[in-house]
Write a structure and sequence with these properties.
single chain; alpha/beta; D-Maltodextrin-Binding Protein, domain 2; 10-stranded mixed beta sheet; two-stranded parallel ribbon; 10 helices; 43% helix; 20% strand; elongated
């Protein structure tokens, strides 16, 4: 009997010890589980903070108005369209009223950019207009497709426009009167053309046309006509003269061998750095690699 009681006591002791170990293990597992969950929550919080997106820069918006040269119509339109594609909340408007009128609009505060297809005058810069040259353009002397004359010297071109040469037979063409076509007073193309030939206020025009397209149409439809237009608008409706044997091409203008070339200016009232963010971004785009490609696509020459 004593032996049985001893065995029972031993079994009871073992059961108590096993229970204690079981309880301890359960508590340890619970503690480990709690610690793991807390660690996972901390990691999740850390990851959330790390991967949070940075605040976006506010989109550019607003309206930009350019005003001026009809010769810069192609460039202005292409620049406006490509800039608006880059900044969808921006509206760029362009009006084509002539270089001088465009600078007047700029100085009056009705336009943010004044487009001029010539260098600015002292009277304009003295009022605060700043000359920002964005491209170089050539001026082509053109005639109708039936004209047999194909090349003119600088002196011959001057004499045609001042009325000293009045018949194409005097310069290698047929016996046919010369119809002298030019742009209206205030045109940047006219100003540049007359300044480059040193015949300002000396020209004798048969027709004065108020747009580049109008000059093209008039010359193309008038036998014996001569006119001048921006190089980038040339098409096969007219013939472009070689001048001093040099064709009006971008390559020849870059080389300095073609003498009829002028700047395309996007003027601001004050320096670019003093303009609104919208205007500054527009000029940043014009001067970027993408902008340079856009200028070349318009048939013009980059200034850099």
């Amino acid at each position: 009997m004593k032996k049985f009681r001893a065995i029972a006591a031993l079994l009871l002791t073992c059961l108590l010890i096993a229970g204690a170990f079981t309880a301890c293990g359960a508590k340890t597992e619970e503690t480990n589980t709690t610690n793991t969950q807390a660690s996972n929550q901390a990691d999740a919080a850390t990851n959330t903070d790390t991967t949070a997106p940075a605040a976006e820069t506010p989109a550019l918006s607003g309206t930009l108005l350019m005003s001026g040269s009809t010769s810069m119509e192609k460039l202005a339109n292409v620049a406006a369209e490509s800039f608006m594609a880059k900044y969808p909340d921006v509206t760029v408007q362009a009006e084509f009223i002539g270089s001088s009128a465009g600078i007047e609009a700029l100085l009056a505060g009705t336009a943010q950019i004044g487009n001029a297809s010539r260098s600015l005058k002292d009277t304009e810069t003295s009022q605060g207009a700043v000359e920002n040259i964005v491209a170089i353009d050539g001026i082509a002397a053109i005639t109708d497709l039936t004209n047999k004359a194909t090349n003119l010297t600088k002196d011959q071109l001057k004499k045609i426009y001042t009325g000293e040469i009045v018949n194409w037979s005097e310069v290698g063409g047929a016996d046919q009167p010369i119809v002298v076509v030019g742009r209206e007073s205030g045109s940047g193309t006219r100003g540049a053309f007359e300044e480059l030939l040193e015949i300002v206020d000396l020209c004798k025009y048969s027709n004065e046309i108020n747009s580049t397209g109008g000059v093209m149409a008039k010359v193309a439809s008038t036998p014996g006509a001569i006119g001048y237009v921006s190089l980038d608008v040339l098409d096969d409706s007219v013939h472009a003269f070689t001048l001093e044997g040099v064709a009006p091409t971008a390559e020849n203008i870059k080389a300095g061998s073609y003498f009829l070339s002028r700047p395309f200016v996007m003027a601001t009232k004050g320096e670019i750095a003093d303009q609104s963010e919208l205007v500054q971004k527009f000029f940043e785009y014009i001067k970027s690699e993408e902008g340079k490609q856009m200028i070349e696509s318009a048939g013009l020459i980059n200034v850099d």
